[in-house]
Amino acid sequence: MNIKLLRSISLGYLLLPNLIFFFFWMNLPVAIPGIAVLLVIFADVLRSKDFVSGTVLNGRDLLVLGLTALLVTFVSGVAGLAYQTFDYWCHNTKFYELFMYDWPIRIPLDGPVISYYYGYYVVPALISKFLGSINEPIIFIWTALGFFLGMAWVYIVLNKKIIYVLLAMAIGDTPHVLKTVFYKITGTMYEMGDFGLESWSNFENLLWVPNQVIPTLIIGGMFVYLLRNKMELEHIVLPVALTFWWAVFPAFTSGLLAAIVIIRKWILKGLKLDWIFVGKTVVLPVLVCAPVLLFFLSHEEAPISGFVWQFSDSMSARVVEYMINIGLNLVIFFFAYMVFRHLTSHVLPPFPYLLILFFILVFPVYRMGKVNDFLFRGLMPYLLIVGIYLFYPFAARSGKEVWAAVRRSPVHIVLFLMLISCSFIEAGRIGRALKVNLMTKKVLPEKVTFDPIPYDAYPNIYEVLKDKWSQREADQYLGKKDSVYELKMAPAKP
Fold it and tell me: 201-252: per-residue pLDDT in tens?
């Protein structure tokens, strides 16, 4: 597989749900030009010669990535094969309501369109509609393909070493390891509030939101690929724009990073740009994702939001929580980068990395969502890119050379151990999935308790949110009758 084919399949994978969005969620005056522009953009991707190269993924690489994607999909809990987190009440209900009801989903049936991100779900749901029942093999294959594509980009950047791909996906969980150790010895390290000031790695998030980790992997890996190969960064705008229908917060934070890096490049060039290229790679993708943004703005109620000091939690506990969860990661990320980046002569540009560290520093002061989804999900692209940056120098060397560089001083050893400590949580999650799954329950029914979460326990996402979470969280996804989307863009009610 060459890089152009990988890019075409990756963008096609993200594009297909967006075509479905315009076809079902928009009225004809918006749908027709939206679909036309998307197809024109994708045709330009297929014609582009910017990514022409020889084979970058041979048969062995495809086998390694395929097996890893199957493992990751299995561990995630998709299709109920292994342990599932609480969020699968939502995931499975979304598949069920998309299978059962006409699109777009309205709650009540004669009310406004519910404002939810269905990008990941619509392709398996549409196939299930044709087949007449929810098809779990299709859900599993669709998910595994997404993980394969996303990890392929990271794999290429990290010199085709799958161990570093998994380590990059685990970056961000070191504070979690520390808190787990302290909890077993002395108890909790700070008073827990009703929302968190912490980051979860992409691997931890895939157990909760595989729908958001997939586009994050594609965007993060492709972004660093462009940096490494000194290619035009405008090419990252299209995958970010296509991601809004999949994952709002990762798309927002990725878009912010891309915008600053690209605008900085334009300014350094004195705004002497190829405006036709800018129009194709930046303006058109931004325009085509505008209807998705207007759709998301059609909430009846806004999510919980505000600066952390505006809430009633103990600020002293919040400061401790910030220092452990955010501060510790920032210290590791900064010093590990400064110490190890010179292990390779092909150094990645520092500006995007330092900008990400700044975002990680300041974003936790603002809360959005009941459990602070903005932080938990929004930092996913940043943590992945941080992971790629940190393990990039090691991936360029042999194991013997890495060990020689690490043992050079006690500081090197400590920093390296801190980096790989994040994988302890990852290993634990894999171990849990291997112990708690359909097969182990069948073989050892007296020892393994595992019942996959049903698809049809609730009629729609509103009911499951109201019952399993809260009334406010359910209400915030209801559509707004007088929104721009509902008045000007939504299809007519049946």
Answer: 999 999 999 999 999 999 999 999 999 999 999 999 999 999 999 999 999 9
Question: Tokens at residue 268, please?
Answer: 């350094």
Which two three-digit tokens encode residue 42? 């994708």
Question: Is residue 123 within 8 Å of residue 16, measured between CB atoms?
Answer: yes
What percent of the chain is helix, strand and coil (3-state, nearest 5)?
Answer: 70, 5, 30
Locus of tokens 């980790």: 213
Using alpha carbons only, give the angle 63, 141, 444 rounded to the nearest 5 degrees: 90
Q: How many CA atoms lie within 13 A of 24 on its CB side?
A: 20
pTM of the model: 0.95
Residue appearing with tokens 């479905």: 20
Please give the Cα distance from 339 to 181 (Å, whole number): 27
3-class DSSP state for residue 489? helix
Rounded distance, CA 28 to CA 266, Å?
37
- How far is the C-alpha of 11 from the C-alpha of 245, rounded, in Å? 13
Instruction: State the CB neighbour count (10 A cutoff) for residue 133.
Output: 9
Alpha carbon distance 148, 155 (integer Å): 10
Where do the H-state alpha helices sit in 269-314?
A: 275-278, 284-296
